[in-house]
C-alpha cells in the first residue's frame, strides 16, 4: 500500500497545469460506445477511474489505446452488453454505462454499483427515468437486467433532484431513442455541457445543456468525434486551496475559471486575491485567512460539494469560526476526524460542521477516507508543523494525476513510498 509523506510549512510558488476533468471524461468515455465508430479524446486525465472506464469499454468489445493524454476508442465491434461485478465495483460512477449500453444495444446487464465512502449512492432516479423511456429493468440478487428490445422512446422526465449521474444516463439513453426527451430539473454542471457538446459533435441533437431543461431529439445513428475534455474545476479548486493554506501565490494554467465562480468567490471571502483569465488563474494568499460564516454546498452553480473538504482544510487555518452545511451527500465528513488528528478544531453534527481556526496544524499519520477528503489531508499536510504521512492514497489517485509531482513542482516536498 502506498503512502504520501509530506514535509510541512513550506511556501509554494510557480505554475501548475491542471489536467482534464475526471467527471467529464467518465461520461464521455461511456458515450463513445454509442456511435460504433472511432473517437479521439484529448486532455483525458491519467487517473485510476479513467483507466477503469477504459477497462469497461474493452470488456464491451471496444479497442482503447492511449497516447499521452489522448485516448482513442473504437466501438465498432461490441461483443457483449454487460459489465461484470468486479468492474462495476471498481468505480461507483460506472452506472453511467447503463444509458450508453441500453441506448446502443437495447439491453444491458450490470450489478448494482457499490455504495461508496460518501454514504449510500442510490440510483432510483436513473432507473425510474429509463423505465419512463420504455426500459424493462429487473433488479434481483444485486444485478440489474435491463431490456428495451422495442427501442427507447423519448418522453418528459421530471427529476426530483438535479442529479448529475441521472441527467447523464438519460442523455446517453435518449440520443438514439425515438422522438424527443425533455429533462426538467436537469443538472447544470459544466460536465453535463461537456458531455452534450461531445455528443453533438457526434451528430446528436441536444439543446439546453447548462440550464435546468435539456432537450434531446433522437437521431438514427452517431459518428465518432475528436474532442477535448474540459479542464478539471475541482482539481483547480484543490490547488487554489494549496496556495491559500500555505500563504503562497500560484498560477494555474489550462483552467476555465468561468466554471468555478462560486469557488473563486469563497477564496476571495477568505481574503485571497484571485485574478482570472480565459485559460489561467492567479491566486495570492499573502494576508491572514478569514473565517467564512456559512458555506452551503448546492447543485451547480452553487458551491460544489466536491470542494467542501478542500475548503474545510483551508478554514482550519482561518481566524475565527466557519460553518459548513453539506446539502448534497449524507455522509461527507469522514475527513473531519483525520483533520482533527492534525490538531484541527472541527465539530460535525449531521450535515453541519463547525470549524474553529487554529494557529498551527501538526503533522500526523492519517488516512485518506475518500477522494476529496484525501486531497484535503494533503493540503493540511502542506501547512502542518512537521511531517504528515497519508495512507490509503488510492482514493486520491482516483481524481488527481500524480498530485505529489504537481505540488513538488511549485516547492512542496512530498514523497510517495510503498
Ligand atoms: C457526481 O456524482 C460526481 N461524480 C460527484 O463527484 C459529485 O460529488 C456529484 O456528482 C455532485 O456534484 C461523477 O461525476 C463521476 P448525483 P453523482 O447523482 O452523479 C442522490 C468526486 O469527488 N441521488 O448528483 O453520483 C445521491 O445519493 C465525485 O469527483 C439519489 O438519491 O451525484 C446524492 O446524495 C464524488 N438518487 C445526490 O443525489 C439517484 O438516483 C447527488 O447525487 C441519484 C442521486
Percentage of residues assigned to helices: 25-40%
Distance between the termini: 6 Å
What is the C-level CATH assignment of the largest domain?
Answer: Alpha Beta
Give a quick account of the main beta sheet: strands, pairing sense, barrel closure: 4 strands, mixed
Please list the strands of the largest sheet in the order they lie side by side. Answer: 22-23-1-24
Low-confidence stretches: none
Structure classification = alpha/beta
Tally of individual domains: 2
Provide an overview of this structure.
By secondary structure, the chain is α/β, with parallel strands linked by helices. Helices cover 32% and strands 25% of the residues. It is built from 14 helices and 24 strands. The protein has a four-stranded mixed beta sheet. Strands 2-15-17-16 form a four-stranded mixed beta sheet, with helices on one face. A four-stranded mixed beta sheet has the order 4-5-3-14, with helices on one face. Strand 8 and strand 9 (143-147) form a beta hairpin.
Amino acid at each position: 500500500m502506498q503512502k504520501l509523506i509530506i514535509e510541512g510549512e513550506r511556501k509554494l510558488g510557480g505554475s501548475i497545469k491542471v489536467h482534464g476533468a475526471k467527471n467529464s471524461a467518465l461520461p464521455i468515455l461511456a458515450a463513445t460506445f454509442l456511435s460504433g465508430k472511432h473517437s479521439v479524446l484529448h486532455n483525458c486525465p491519467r487517473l485510476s477511474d479513467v483507466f477503469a472506464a477504459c477497462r469497461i469499454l474493452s470488456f464491451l468489445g471496444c479497442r482503447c489505446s492511449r497516447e499521452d493524454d489522448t485516448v482513442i476508442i473504437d466501438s465498432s465491434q461490441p461483443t457483449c452488453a454487460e459489465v461484470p461485478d468486479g468492474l462495476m465495483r471498481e468505480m461507483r460512477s460506472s452506472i453511467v454505462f447503463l444509458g450508453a449500453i441500453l441506448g446502443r444495444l437495447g439491453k444491458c446487464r450490470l450489478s448494482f454499483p457499490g455504495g461508496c465512502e460518501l454514504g449510500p449512492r442510490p440510483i432510483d432516479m436513473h432507473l425510474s427515468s429509463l423505465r419512463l423511456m420504455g426500459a424493462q429493468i429487473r433488479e434481483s440478487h444485486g444485478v440489474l437486467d435491463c431490456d428495451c428490445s422495442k427501442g427507447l422512446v423519448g418522453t418528459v422526465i421530471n427529476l426530483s433532484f438535479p442529479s448529475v449521474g441521472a441527467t447523464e444516463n438519460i442523455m446517453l439513453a435518449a440520443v438514439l431513442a425515438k422522438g424527443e426527451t425533455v429533462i426538467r430539473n436537469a443538472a447544470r454542471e459544466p460536465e453535463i455541457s461537456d458531455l452534450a457538446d461531445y455528443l453533438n459533435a457526434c451528430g446528436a441533437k441536444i439543446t439546453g445543456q447548462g440550464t435546468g431543461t435539456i432537450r434531446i431529439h433522437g437521431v438514427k445513428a452517431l459518428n465518432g468525434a475528436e474532442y477535448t475534455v474540459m479542464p478539471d474545476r475541482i482539481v483547480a479548486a484543490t490547488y487554489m486551496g494549496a496556495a491559500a493554506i500555505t500563504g503562497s501565490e500560484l498560477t494555474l494554467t489550462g483552467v476555465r475559471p468561468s466554471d468555478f465562480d462560486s469557488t473563486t468567490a469563497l477564496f476571495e471571502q477568505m481574503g485571497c486575491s484571485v485574478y482570472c483569465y480565459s485559460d489561467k488563474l492567479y491566486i495570492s494568499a499573502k494576508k491572514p485567512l478569514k473565517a467564512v460564516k456559512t458555506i452551503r454546498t448546492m447543485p451547480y452553480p452553487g458551491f460544489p460539494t466536491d470542494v467542501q473538504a478542500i475548503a474545510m482544510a483551508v478554514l482550519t487555518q482561518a481566524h475565527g469560526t466557519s460553518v459548513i452545511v453539506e446539502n448534497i451527500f449524507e455522509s461527507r465528513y469522514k475527513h473531519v476526524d483525520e483533520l482533527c488528528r492534525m490538531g484541527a478544531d472541527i465539530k460535525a453534527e449531521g450535515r453541519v460542521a463547525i470549524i474553529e481556526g487554529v494557529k498551527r496544524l501538526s503533522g500526523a499519520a492519517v488516512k485518506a477516507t475518500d477522494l476529496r477528503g484525501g486531497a484535503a489531508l494533503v493540503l493540511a499536510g502542506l501547512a502542518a508543523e512537521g511531517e504528515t504521512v497519508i495512507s490509503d492514497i488510492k482514493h486520491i489517485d482516483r481524481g488527481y494525476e500524480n498530485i505529489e509531482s504537481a505540488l513538488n513542482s511549485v516547492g512542496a516536498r512530498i514523497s510517495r513510498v510503498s
